[in-house]
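Subject: Sanity check before I submit

Could someone independently write out the structure tokens for this chain? I want to compare against mine line by line before I put it in a report. The sequence has 225 residues.
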Amino acid sequence: MAIRLLVIEDDAEIADFISRGLREEGFLVEVAADGLSGWHALKAASWDVIVLDWWLPGQDGMTLLQRFRQVNQTTPVLFLTARDAVEQRVQGLNAGADDYLCKPFHFAEFVARVQALLRRRPSSIGTRLEYQDVAMDLKTQRVERAGQPLDLTAKEQALLLFFLRHPGEVLSRTRIYEHVWQESFDGLSNTLEVHVMELRRKLEAYGPRLIHTVRGRGYVFGEKT
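---
Independent answer below. Compare away.
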């Protein structure tokens, strides 16, 4: 399952618990630890579900939700908070949340609520990504170029998925590494370069180069800018 979730949660222990569990369920997860970084993450990419805490440093979740709904009316938002009074739940739902879960919670219920949000909007979640002659089926995990299947490792597929979601955009090495490997990029490892080289090799077996190096900035997938 290649569904992308953004978790905006300032409690590092809770954020780690949620993100680890979601990744084990097969989701792609990014975490923001405060309102400002959460807002930047909301604007920087498209998400299938957003998990949003009420209490956040910098900008609280309610304000963040209201700002987000002004520019995005469709992405499901699950409010996750210790506030459990009925009037507060109503306030959150009226502000634009699609569901509400109070802390503490059972992870099984949390995942079930995320799945329910995904089912409510099937038309908003694409099952196939394409760019030129490259295609990825998110349900079957089949990847092909020019009609020819590509045998990719899990990391190569995650890397290609990230490129397919951002065609024509210059992506920094730090952003790519932290999204695909879910780890901080120290600038010394050549892991990313090795995987890009292998992914290029497999893609270029059936067509011209699509992953271009932008010196000093990162990589761009598609037409080089």
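---
OP: Matches mine. For the report I'm noting this point. The longest strand covers residues 4-8.
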